[in-house]
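User: I'm putting together a teaching handout on how multi-component assemblies are represented. Below are the sequence lines for each component of a complex, exactly as they appear in our records. Could you produce the 3D structure of the whole assembly as structure tokens, so the students can see both representations side by side? Please keep the chain order the same as the input.
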Amino acid sequence: MNNKSPGLKQHLENIDVPEVKPLHHQQQLKLTILNAKKSATISLWLLVVPFIVLFGGLMQSAFHVMLPPWSWLVKYSPLMPLWLRLAIFVSVVIVLPLIAVFINVLGILWFKYDKAEHVLQIAVRMHKTNIIIITIAGILALLFIGHTITEWITNG
Amino acid sequence: MTPEEEEYLIGLIKIESSEFGVLFDLHYHAIFNYVFHRLGDYELSRDIVSEVFLKAFINIRSFKYKGIPVLFWLYRIANNEIQQHFRKKKYLPSYFGAAINPTDWCALNMQSDEEEKNQLEKELQQHENFVLMQQKIKLLPLNYQEVIVLRYFEQKTIKEIALIKNKKEGTVKSLLSRGIEKLKTLV
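Assistant: Of course. Below is the structure of the complete assembly, with chains in the same order as your input.
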């Protein structure tokens, strides 16, 4: 190494460097990174159920093939009271996708309240997986909400 | 952590991604300190460190252990992010944190961002020589900044810097020497 600047080197070697430990940010970041993955995984499972039901319905209408759990629903739902049928329908095809949307929206949003400026900053992380899940789950939920409203209007 | 343990941990992360938390806790402070020593700005350091670990989390599956510690790989990502910051002037990280469950916040029992920032500013005030030197180093070309900060602030050896920068030891020595010469003209 060059010896032209021993004074500066010595100074650099002896300089007292601050050691920082931002524990708050560490915990916040760790949770964020690990939770984003978790929310995507949980949401996929939340979407599987309505998709199976939808697939069963499509198989019946297109190919007249009855597959479980659709076949179970067709078989047992007439035995159930109306409120239970409605509850199952709403929770499976509307509530589950909406929960998936909610979890993933939380997973990509970042809120920060600036006390000094009295401003709430909301930022969105463009995380592909989460956005795809939000889109699919949103479409699915809207589809069934639309279907329910149409049925309700046509049947009075 | 021995190289064997590190290799085992990476294998484990590839199977169960939540194990990334172990790696994160191991290296967070080293990376935060490095970025902070380079930039001296708490908020910017926070953004860059977030981006570094998010990229590491996404790319860890493609990471192949070839004897280079993960920490050095993280330093490389940090260097790239800092370079991006200097290139764009205004750093716009693709990372944004997620909203965290309020119960998690309680469990953390940590200070707010603002308090943490104030603490770091106080810490900096107690290290005037460091701040002055850091401001001068920031005027140097990035290549010189990297080697000087790694050598003198992070106490890395020439061999380690060579591994981090994926350059020969001779090249690092020469970079360091030229960097110090340039710095001397600024001090």
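A couple of points students might notice: Chain B has two domains: 1-97, 127-187. Residues 91-111 of chain B have pLDDT under 50 and may be disordered.
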